[in-house]
Amino acid sequence: MIRANSITTFCLLMLIFFSACSQKQPISLHPDNPHYFLFRGQPTVLIGSTEHYGAVLNLDFDYVKYFDELKSKGLNVTRTFTGFYVEPQGAFGIARNTLAPGEGKLICPWARSNEAGYAGGGNKFDLNKWDEAYFVRLKDFISEAGKRDIVVELDLFSNIYDTIQWKLSPLNFTNNINNLAPIRDHKEILSLKHPEIIKIQEQMVEKILSELNDFDNLYYEICNEPYFGDLLALDTWEKHMTEFTHKTESKLGKKHLISNNIANGSEKIENLNNGVSIANFHYAKPPVAVELNYSLNLPVGDNETGFNGIEDVHYRTEAWDFMVAGGALFNNLDYSFATGHEDGSFKVAPGQPGGGGQALRSQLQNLKNVIDSLDFVKMKPSNELIKNKLKGMTTARVLANEGNQYLVYLNNAIGISPSEGSKTEVFNILIELSKGNYTGTWIDPISGLRSSFPLNHSGGEMELITPPFIEDMALLIRKR
User: Fold this and answer.
1) What are the pLDDT digits (tens) for 15-50?
2) On the CB side of 242, how many CA atoms lie within 13 Å of its CA?
3) Residue 40: left (phi > 0), alpha (psi -120 to 50), or beta?
4) Beta strands in 323-377 (DSSP E)
5) Which of 102, 278, 324, 466 is the most exposed place for a label (fewest CB within 10 A)?
């Protein structure tokens, strides 16, 4: 005879077992709404504020402190490069660039040789040998992220923009001992012109995918910004490398999502590469990229921001606009993370190519909290529910499950100059709601403060007057 407490214990053990099994499945598209993710059994959007992609390859960077800061703000995505591409200090005007390791501080997939002469300090590389210490660090990085429910976007490659970056690449014939053909044009590295280089790139992909297959908090982006230079060569190369990555993954136990970085700003995707599950854009403000590609039924991301000044308003409003437009992923490029300032305390000074800092991360946390409180899998972009044109250049976006929940975002920051001072305004919005009894909540995206009110409606159009605000305001309407 089996006792009741034995049955209870058995059921608990089985629950733990199946829970552990489900957690091991990599982040995937949500089966009920592929515009969003499923991660560790939960509907998921990814919102982050990321250092400049050097957390693994820069030996001086303490990524545990970095992850602790992201976790404290409830942020759940980071973006990092493999070491195929690095930058010199001063590139793009970035102060304390984490993607520009100090003398001899670069670690990458390939082992150092016994021959001195790497342009970034230390010995040259041997492209026939793996640096096992690198893979230990890479796996520890993803593991520490996973402990904090943070998803890692690993960019396998990056555009090599100019000669100054090519001079630091381990694949440059001057930086290794492998007697490669002397390629002097950096634009040829991401092309199919040199079979010897393609073979090295493919071997790196195979090694990384094999080493990381067991992780669930991981997806791969093939290449960062493959749209500067010889576009025909880059497109052909990216298609080849995407298909190679997809085929390599298909032979392994677990299948990870693959992203292509489509464009800066926006672009309508006409031909998606085989195996791609995520379409990422940079500087997607306004969020036309989501609207143009929503019919593809996949997550659309804005995974790099910048070049709008250092003020928080630019990147907060970009995030809210993008996510309320139906985006699944937003990742701010945060220059307050630097070596020695892994907690994000480095002061981002005027003249930097972007912003970042504690205040902005708290504002992104406010957005994440609102989205997470929604049953967003059942929602879709519904801007047509706003029936009036707002004054000035103010825009309104709506994400809705009509009759149940509505998220409205008003962006009044377009065209406002900080020199104009703080001038609050109120707006009348005419919104179409299904019949029902609701609770309306005004949300300040900066402070996160909320003000709720009852909203009983017989159906059709309803006029609402906003609280006074300067830059932006959100409205959450939920059926009671």
Assistant:
1) 444 444 445 899 999 999 999 999 999 999 999 999
2) 24
3) left
4) 329-333
5) 102
